[in-house]
Design brief:
- The protein is mainly alpha-helical.
- It folds into three domains: 205 residues, Rhomboid-like fold, CATH 1.20.1540; 99 residues, no CATH class; 77 residues.
- It is 62% helix and 6% strand.
- The protein contains 17 helices and three strands.
- A hairpin with a 2-residue loop joins strand 2 and strand 3.
- The N and C termini lie far apart (71 Å).
Length: 389
């Protein structure tokens, strides 16, 4: 037994009321309607109405709960990406398409079919396109062995649809009987993939994955969700653009970085945020916004310096700290540079570092040796840096 139980995208910006309305409708119909036959879809006698109504009926409590659980893992996040109305149209379209394809492939089948599986398969196909790198956590149980493991969405969803195709072929060949509409799953999944790729190509729905232009006086949970969504899609440059060109009412970027680090639920996300912080520090330093750069640099160092900034950035921050009179912190930055002292320095950086070490009253034989062997330095500058050393 293999059951998906969670994934690393469990944050949304807006309440997914369409997703919860769909789940509530399925639950209400299950407990309130006794005779499902008038609402079931019959492949031998297909109707548009029944292809719609059959999506909300289920044959057993297990059937209902399993469908809704899969939907809960995918639906709210696609709705968050595309918006409520577009998601509703997509969900209904996926269910209807799945039923029509099933009727076309099995025109002789007179057994009534019910369930939201085709529509939910469509949502799973869209999830594959939109969030293919998401790590899904699974619970497994086989005989006396049980546990958990994580795997990328693209691997598990492709394995799942491959299994559905295989079971569909084997069912048609009479090799096995499952009582499941495997081709409806395949149709819904294909519909979801096609729609998601089309919307991605048309750049529809990207707006929902961008940082808001105007914010409140403090970063909110939806802002953190925006950052994670963009980082998961490899769109960190968009996060940086939004953070270096803030609105007047925006809090310092360091506050958002701090919030993201606090909510990074997995080591992989923490690494992504630290990498973003390093890049952001470099960009802000080049732009001359040293106050903002220093705030983010402090956060990076507080998290064990997993993503170190280059020496040029550190030198600019050292100079800024000395200008503020924060000698102790400037000395700490100098120590960090000395800990990972580059073998080769550009002449300008070496001169700048040597002079700041002198201002701090520090000497280091490795730096002095670099000065001695650096033939591009003017004699007067070399003498100044070497002093009596």
């Amino acid at each position: 037994m293999l059951i998906p139980i969670s994934h690393d995208r469990f944050t949304v910006r807006n309440f997914p009321w369409v997703s919860f309305a769909i789940m509530a409708s399925c639950i209400a119909v299950f407990f309130l309607v006794d005779d499902v036959r008038p609402w079931a879809f019959v492949a031998a006698e297909p109707t548009l109405l029944q292809s719609f109504t059959s999506m909300f009926f289920h044959g057993s409590l297990l059937h209902l709960l399993s469908n809704l659980f899969f939907f809960y893992l995918c639906g709210p996040f696609i709705e968050d990406r595309w918006g409520h109305f577009l998601f509703l149209l997509f969900y209904l379209g996926a269910g209807i398409f799945a039923a029509v394809l099933f009727a076309w492939l099995r025109p002789d089948l007179t057994v009534p079919a019910i369930g939201a599986s085709g529509a939910i398969a469509g949502v799973m196909g869209a999830f594959l396109v939109c969030f293919w790198r998401t790590k899904i956590e699974f619970f497994y149980w086989y005989l006396f062995f049980m546990g958990r493991f994580s795997a990328p969405a693209w691997i598990m969803l492709l394995l799942w649809i491959g299994r559905e195709i295989l079971f569909g072929v084997m069912t048609d060949a009479g090799i096995m009987v499952t009582g499941v509409g495997h081709w409806a799953h395949v149709g819904g999944f294909g519909f979801g993939v096609t729609v998601a790729l089309t919307l991605k190509w048309l750049r529809v729905g990207e707006r929902a994955g961008q940082l808001p232009a105007a914010r409140r006086q403090s970063w909110q949970a939806e802002d953190v969700a925006d950052v994670f969504a963009l980082l998961d899609e490899g769109r960190g440059d968009e996060v940086i653009r939004a953070m270096i060109e803030p609105e007047e009412s925006d809090p310092p970027p360091a506050e958002l970085v701090h919030a993201c680090l606090a909510h990074a639920a997995t080591p992989a996300r923490r690494v992504k945020v630290l990498r973003l912080a390093r890049q952001l520090t470099e960009v802000l330093t080049r732009r001359g916004d040293l106050a903002a750069a220093l705030g983010i640099y402090r956060l990076v160092q507080a998290h064990n310096g997993a993503e170190e900034c280059g020496p040029s950035v550190r030198l600019r921050l050292m100079e800024y700290l000395l200008g503020l009179g924060l000698v102790t912190e400037a000395a700490a930055v100098a120590d960090e540079i000395l800990t990972r002292l580059p073998v080769e320095w550009a002449p300008g950086l070496l001169i700048q570092f040597g002079r700041m070490l002198a201002r701090l009253g520090k000497t280091d034989q490795r730096v002095l040796e670099l000065v001695r062997v650096h033939t591009e330095l003017p004699d007067a500058v070399r003498q100044e840096l070497l002093g009596d050393g």
